[in-house]
Amino acid sequence: MRWMRNREIRNALLWLCLLCGGFTMAAFWWYAPFGWFVLALSVLFLLLYSVTTLQRYRRIAALSEEIDRVLHGTEIAFSPDGYAEGELGVLQSELQKMTVRLREQQHLLQNDKVQLADAIADISHQIRTPLTAVNLLVQLLGEEQNGERRAELTRELLSLLSRMDWLITTLLKMSRLDAGTVKFQCEAISLDTLVRRAVAPLAVTTELRGQTVTVEARGQFFGDAAWTGEALVNIVKNCTEHTPAGGSIVITAFENALYTEIRVQDSGGGIAAEDLPHIFERFYKGKNAKEQSFGVGLALARRIVTAQNGTLTAENVTGGAVFTMRFYKSVV
Length: 332
What we know:
- It is built from 8 helices and 7 strands.
- By secondary structure, it is of the alpha+beta class.
- A 5-stranded mixed beta sheet has the order 2-4-5-7-6, with helices on one face. Strands 1-3 form a two-stranded antiparallel sheet.
- Helix 1 (7-30) packs antiparallel against helix 2, helix 3 (87-143) runs antiparallel to helix 4 (147-179) and helix 4 runs parallel beside helix 8.
- The longest helix has 57 residues, at 87-143.
- It is elongated and about 120 Å long.
- It starts with 6 loop residues before the first helix and ends with a strand.
């Protein structure tokens, strides 16, 4: 009888036996038939206490075994039949809730570890290629004597370093978004100002390629202009890279009672059907992606938009592709 090992139960039974024995002896001393009655009542009371205590002890032991299995990573299938009224029932319910919560946290932590390992592997792979090129260029610079060739190698080296700096900055921004440490501001700004401010850094690039950028915007935008501009410039930059020289990029933006929409359409021929479901995945490169592409710009753009209660989609239309950002004014 393992439950008799419990000191509290032994002490309680000892005191009950002493009290029952004392009352029984007093009853026999006062009146013998009454003493037999007290004795029978005392035995019945002790048996009732022992049975109820044994049941409670078994339920506590079962709870302890469940907690031990949880601590050792064993899956437990909880059944509603185990719930009952009373303090032990409430305790069992709360322990099961805590167990489910701990299990969910364990799964989330495990997924975070897997995602972190994958992210580190992807980052190391993305940085290794330009680092190898940088090392090669540095060696060539040390050996090259021709001034023009040295200037050309220096320009290539600066271009690679600039790409690495952009990649690291973008990855840091994405890590902040993933960690939830970014606090988006809510400010009112005209859509025309937002769009033109975002595409201004690409003016030189589009001019050199002979591309035209048309902006048609009306209405107001309510949100974080800086982060939204970051998302928009990444989308437009992707469009410029896949639009041939002399092509066009049309940006339209408007506001209605439900959402604010910004559409970016290019004349680059569209996105390959097999790439369309994956273009917003981190480090994904389509078959038509350029060699210097890292595959993080569109992923960052979607992360920024979704963090502001919005959606970012891509689709093919006649003669090109369309990226659509929608920022909803209420939770949909």
